[in-house]
Amino acid sequence: MKIKISKKVLVIIGIIIFAIIFVSLIRTYSQQVTEQRQLSASLAAQQTLLTKLTNDKEEWESRRNKAESLLDTSQKKFPQSVECIEYGEDLFDIADDCNVDLTNLSMSKPSSTTVGSVAYSVGTFVLKVKGSMDDLLDFIYAIRTGDDFELPWSAALKGVNMGVGTAVEATITLDIYAYRR
Can you tell me the distance from the alpha carbon of 13 to that of 76, in angstroms, rounded to the nearest whole number? Predict the structure, then answer.
């Protein structure tokens, strides 16, 4: 049994297949156009973001460079300040070890001195201490010998004035020398 299909039916089937293919192609094309538009919009947004981030990066690098420059300038101005604080801490520790009260600590601005090729930082300190005579003498001896110093520095006593009243008080003037690296 042979089925004969008329030309009219074949043309209709061909038109239907063509229409299905054509509709599929249009739908696929439409989806690709929509996706391309979304990708173009996303790409434009990403390029805008990249431009903003590049500008932000340049601004932050500029700020960092300014901050580093300010830090360098500040460090050049104040390197002795930290050392002086550390010297003060050592002096308070020595006073505590010798059972004397360090009632006043003042210093002059540190200066530099060079001996040969070695540079030293020199600061003059004036200390006022109270305690028993033996404890004050122990304190003066500890400063003079430098045994209790935690930092690589040494002190040269310039003068000691003692007053005896209800409590023994001493005003001690000393120069502190520190090796500068």
Answer: 92
Report the distance separating Cα 28 and Cα 22, nearest Å: 10
Q: Residue 147 sits in a domain of what CATH number?
A: 3.30.70.60
pTM score:
0.49
Instruction: For residue range 114-140, list pLDDT tens digits in order.
Output: 767 777 778 888 889 998 888 888 888
For 109-142, give one letter per residue: b (16+ CB within 10 A) or e. ebeeeeeeeeebbebbbebebbbeeebbbbbbeb
Q: From 77, 103, 134, give the residue that closes a domain.
A: 77
Q: How far apart are CA 36 and CA 3, in angstroms?
A: 48
